[in-house]
Fold this protein.
Amino acid sequence: MLMQEAGAPFNPQFADGPLFTIVNLLWLIPALPMLAAGLSALLKQPRRKLSSSLAVGSLSISLLLSLIAFGHVLSAWSAGAPTREVVNLTWLQFGSTNVDLGWVLDPLSAVMLVMVSFVGLLIFIYSTGYMEHDENYTRFFCFLSLFAGAMLGVVISNSILLLFMCWEIVGLTSYLLIGFWYHKPSAAAAAKKAFVTTRVGDIFFLLGIVWLFAQTSTLLFYNSGAGSLEPNALQRLLAQPAALGLTAAGAIGLLIFAGAAGKSGQLPLHVWLPDAMEGPTPVSALIHAATMVAAGVYLIARVYPLMQAGALTGGSTASLTVVTWVGASTALFAALIAVAQDDIKRILAYSTVSQLGYMMAGLGMGGVAVGMFHLITHAFFKALLFMGAGSVIHGCHEEQDIRNMGGLKSDMPWTFATYAAGMLALTGVPIFAGFWSKDGILEAASHWGVAKTPYYILVLGALLTAFYMTRQVSYVFFGNSRSQGHAQESPRVMLAPLVILAIFAVTLGFLGTPAWPWFQAFLNSTPTSVDFARFGEAGLLPLMLTSSLVVLAGIGLGWWLYGSKSPAANDPDALEKSAKPAWIVLRNKFYIDELYGATLVAFFWFWARVADWLDRHIWGGIVALVSALFNAFARFNRFLDANWVDGGFDKGCEELYSGGGLLARVQNGRVQTYLRLLALAVVVLAAILLIWGGRA
Amino acid sequence: MTPLAAYLMVAAILFAIGLAGALTRRNAILVLIGIELMLNAANLNLVAFWHYGPNPGALTGMMFAIFSIAVAAAEAAVGLGLVISIYRHTRTTDLDQINRMKG
Amino acid sequence: MTVSIPFYILSAITLLGGLAAVTLRNTVHCALALTAAFAGLAMLFLQLDAQFAGFAQILIYIGAVAILVVFAILLTRNAELEATSVFSRTWIAGLAIAAAVFTVLGWAIMQTASRLPEAWPTPQVTVRDIGNALMSRYILPLEIVALLLTAALIGAVIVAMHEKEGTK
Amino acid sequence: MIEKLDQIFLLLRTWLVGFLPARWQAAAGVVLGVVAIIGTYPALFALGTVMERKGLGRMQNRLGPNRVGPFGILQPVADGIKALVKEDVIPSRADKAVHFLAPLLLVVVVFMGFAVLPMGRNMVLVDLDAGLLFFFAMGASTELSVFMAGWSSRNKYSLLGAMRAIAQMISYEVVLLMSSLAVVMISGTLSLPDIVDKQNRYTYGLPHWYAFTPWGFAGLVMFSIAAMAETNRSPFDLPEGESELVAGYFTEYSGFKFALFFLGEYVGMFSIAGLGATLFLGGWTAPFEFLTWVPSWMWFFGKLMVAMCIFIWIRGTLPRLRQDQLMNFAWKFVLPMTLLNLLVAALWRFLGHGWLRWVICWVIVLGAYVLMAQIGMRKRNLGPRRYRYAE
């Protein structure tokens, strides 16, 4: 067996051309950070510098490779060549079925690669400064690089199995990182919560994978016509009916979407994301704003052909409709909650949830390009916001309640400037990045064939977004200082990433303006050009106008309520004064956690109690009964032998004893006896073999 | 009697001798010696089959023998080490007295 | 084709050595007889054109294992059971079982003796071939054996080491 | 003529064998070879003893044997006669058989080692394909005889000496093997004649001896250290340290058996020196191209004699090690160095020709040596002995 393994050569069917094209080296991008993680896992605690430099170095190499890959795809696109290249290799082989792994390089993955590695790198650099005084520095960087590697793996994987593996590693690292300060009970609880909640989604995801494999009998997305996302497989899936009038494609799409929802905190499963803010701020920035939560969205984008297969009414399918509705409602819902939070990071967390809702809705209504565009821009400015928040917290001595801050714009000018840029981008003020991407989503929503409601929901969400961001900013940076102790600006190593990200937050949007929809064209790999006439398209300008008006209205409202007058730390919130009951509800996040606690948790708790009770009383009772019976029997026995058969009984006992001795001799603890039995057995077996089996 | 059969017979006898030693001697070290003999009998079998087999060019049998020699060396080292440490605890190597290996 | 004279001599050496190794009273004599048996086996390997295996046998068994055995014997000295028998109390059973094993084996050989090949090609293997095989086809087993040997080395030292003193 | 002189022994053999009927000739040839070996080396042994005694005497500012014959060169004869006529004392509680077998076994296996040594062009008894392995197998078997000697003569000193000797031999045997493995790696063969042929080339009149390559040089150094330890020569002569255990494992031997032991040790020295010369110093090849006309066997035995002189010189110079120093030296310094040397040899093999591999290999070897010496000194494993006086 070993021989064959030794003999068997390992030759993945590489893409054509020389071995060292970027496509064939693509696996290095996730492999390097993972390697760094492994190495720094072996490092001793005091080797801080080495571990951080390992992580940063490996990720920067990955960034370099990602840029090369991006350029490769870009050139292919501009040359009009096919932009998708895959490398597949067989991992295991059970009889006829292969378990294949592989990686794909296409515009989607290229863009994601660059985004993830770039933002990740910035956050690594940032966290070298932020975690400086933590004694588990090396562990932190080990986890970070592991996460980065897994995330990149998710991005490039061409096999749904590989994607799922990396997906799970991502989940694990997020668990580890949320619970990084595990000595804080809240952090530990949050970590558990995140893990369990995402599991719920992942179960469905796994079911989807299995079903997909069962239907298409391949794990690869693209495999020169044989992949599961390629037309003929999709045809088969469509032909295959499932329950509730869904096709198999629809059902699988829904299952996969459940996984995505779990990972990127869509409505029923969003509860873990705000609690995840217990982790260190760079983690929140990296995992719970920029990359990991985007994994869900990315997953949907990756399997979009499946989702889109067999478009029903109004160019949408059942699964896409579900995606849209879930996304839209999440957007509004989270935005509402965010209005009434006081923890600076929680506000951002809820805004992340709502933005993810936007992305989902964008995917559902506008297609891959729209959603992904918002994903990219959002990744940049939300990472910026989180790191800004981190720097604020750092400056205010780990203070997280915005009511105890204020007037920081003079204390931390750099942080303020960058934060403001991020806030404007998030709220979608014209010419800022968020404006264009959100606008794309709104436009898609306005043209959606199924229903108009999502459009209004999203507009309302935009208003609320502007409102709560203004509230937060004015609480934190304006007004007179309510913080005890003087806040100081963060070190340069933390500011540099902020500045870089801020620049992107301002400018990135121009890649996808209606006038020059470069990004969309790139993702769909269709040619494009600059053409300002596109602004003149029907309903585009009015739409942009409305959205910017809405945004400005939101900002104005926020400013009027919070910015103009600077409330004291302990006096009630402006909203609380005006609309108390609504405030209470929002403040308690619509009681979702309580709801789950009252239903699911209570349910399991109940059954646990039942089982416990059964143990205690029923089974325990039976046992007690049996023992009592035997007890009685024994007493009776003693009575008998005391009175009648004393001698006989003793004799019997001796007999039994000697019999036991005979048996015990088998196991007398002497090695040789055991050896003997062994040899005897061999003899018998061999004899049997010779007599009956020998003829064969 | 063909040569192969002769070799096999020698190996069988050697194996039996080794087994007998392992089963009857009281001294743990001698039990190990018996086991070594058994191993060598197996090696002899392997080499004989290699030599008289259809294609000795494949070297399989001899490789197997060489590997098993190497493994036997390791086995002897560990086994004797165990015997010595046992001897340290119970000042004897008499297997009839070392009977702690029971439930 | 019958077997040659050297074969008889060598197998006689081997078997007598083995017999002596398990029957002699003095443990050191047993070890020495064991080495005799090993030497006979090595020469049998040579008879079978397995040069490498034969020399490896001498190098490892006589050079290392036998020495190890005598070391162990000397280290577990005063376990000399001069008074009592060297055989365990229930030696009859052991002997019977060994005999049974031998009968089964011999029976098997005798049954298949007719089917064993008569003529054979004398293998021409150089050490170079063996080296190539070790480095190409058997590379994985080789690595594993190397690992095993390392583990055994460390394990043996640790097992036999006193708590405080150094190695044995 | 020169060729005749070079091949004289072979010619002699063929001439002698010629008298016999054809079917005995092969066997007779082998027998003759064996006889030649068994004749030659004891003679060399006699020569060696007198050389050693006189040399040591000079080093210790004495005269050494100078009575028997001119300059006392007949001393060994006298010694031999003495050994023969001396009473052979066997301890009463000794294990007679083993006590008797031990020296025989030693001598036999030691002589067997010569079977594969090429002592001149075409002058090898049996050209085994696995010759080196055979040689080491024989070398390994000597330990057994040592043990037999030490154990059979129920004597505390003998047993201790045997234990020491075996421990030391085993430890240094590993080194011996490892250091010769480098040569095997490069020459790609285990047959000693082939190894010599591989070294039998000249550039600018200088030979391609392995000793002139970085790994070869390091290998030679470590090989000689290990060889000295293998043969229990000073400074590794703990097993027969007179001041500590009377004469080590052959304390209880007297008369001819003692002589046999002595012979065995000496011949062992010859054989291991011959191996070293074969592996690293090009066996029977000439040190300069213009000297190739000198018969090859002369070169071989010349190298042997030089090696002997060096042995004697070192014995006269260096003090004896302590047991723990000995072991530490073997396992913590020489063995790692040999392993590294294997690596260097691999580099040498794969770096191709050109000056680069010279630089790299030399740097690695020397750098490792310096580094390990530093570490060893700091850890005081190999450092000078620190004396502790009773206050």
Notes: The first strand of chain A starts at residue 85 and ends at 94. The mean pLDDT of chain A is 81.
